[in-house]
Design brief:
single chain, 129 residues, alpha/beta, Nucleotidyltransferase, domain 5, five-stranded mixed sheet, 4 helices, CobE/GbiG_C_sf
Length: 129
């Protein structure tokens, strides 16, 4: 199962999210046999309309990742990530946690042209979140 994890700021638009997904999809076409099967982000960002619409249009579930899990994720830190995420890179943390036990990141995170959305991909059995 491939999970797309998202990090984003309040300036993110529907177009920014779509661009990030397009980058990830192009990457997967070259490097994987599967496509994205679920989207994930921090529970406090779940209500962001542009991401909700993207999930609906793609017909994919949008999983809320608990803040405490993000803060403990085995991913790098970012100076742009707030304390509530343990300063962890949100896209990578959400993807990896969503991928479940034994999951692993696929490639490097990708960033929308305007810099407002990051997306990371992880593969694993999936997790009930």
């Amino acid at each position: 199962m491939i999970i797309a994890g998202f990090g984003f700021n309040s300036g993110a638009t529907r177009q920014s999210f779509q661009e990030a997904v397009d980058l990830a999809t192009a990457f997967l076409e070259v490097h994987a046999q599967e496509g994205i099967e679920a989207l994930a982000t921090a529970e406090d960002k779940l209500g962001y309309n542009a991401l909700q619409h993207l999930s609906g249009e793609m017909g994919l579930p949008l999983w809320a990742i608990r803040l405490g899990d993000i803060a403990q994720a085995p991913v790098g830190k970012s100076e742009h990530s707030p304390d509530r995420y343990g300063n962890r890179r949100l896209a990578e943390a959400a993807a990896l946690i969503g991928a479940g036990p034994g999951g692993s990141l696929i490639g490097d995170r990708m960033v929308s042209t305007d810099g407002t959305v990051t997306i990371a991909l992880a593969s694993g059995p999936g997790r009930n979140v």
